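INFO  loader      accepted 1 record
INFO  loader      residues=293
INFO  predictor   begin
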Amino acid sequence: MEGIDVNPRQEAAAQMVEIKNPEQIAKMRAAGLVVAAMHKACAEAAQPGVSTKELDEIAAKVLADHGAKSNFLGYGGFPGNICTSVNDVVVHGIPDRKTVLQNGDVISIDAGAIVDGWHGDAALTVFVGSGHSAELIELSRVTEESMWAGIAAMKQGNRLVDVSRAIETYIRRQPKPGGGRYGIIEDYGGHGIGTEMHMDPHLLNYVERRRGKGPKLVPGFCLAIEPMVSLGTPKTEVLEDDWTVVTTDGTWSSHWEHSVALTEEGPLVLTSPDGGKAKLAELGITAAPDPLG
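INFO  predictor   done
INFO  writer      dumping tokens
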């Protein structure tokens, strides 16, 4: 890695990152579009009286219609096609019949797809019914916008820590209704993605200085950027099912995620229907052309 000022530990980390060529990124874009279709169908169906298992069945149909496979189902024994995380559940909620959505709930729908061996992964927060507080609406907005701040930091020459810093900085600069600070979840973060769903490097949603700067971002670098933010604590615990992650203080949370590829022409948001074009334009960034047209 001549010409790149990294220490041996950072160099080793960079060598573990799977760098994709344009043809491989195009395949990841195909998987990302399936994920986008899953989100659209599930978000529209997430109404009061609908069980999380019904959402899972909707996601399974979208996968089947596109000839894709879920990268969640069977992963480490996970029993669902998607993760359905309601209210104080941060991530990894298991779809089931007994969890029926109620008016006023907030649900994170985390979905993934495999197309031709390449992965897509994304999450969004959905408001169920009506009557949500301004505090909850702002929580979701802050979480989503921090994700886009991280995406905007995916520039050639930046390092992994610059993405973490952009996410954390955005969140910390937002005033929290009622005072206090948002809880940036500590134990979970983003990750590399490509021929597997979870790959190096791990992406924190805050800066932890002892980890160093991480590898430089180069064309072909792909990340799943996913801030998780609560109204209270950054601490979590895993329930007895060994999957469901909840906040330790019972405060509600929001989770947003996109898979993103850095190309020679800029970032391409693989799991956004328009490739991130509209949102990145708002941030003064030109999205890379969509390889699928």
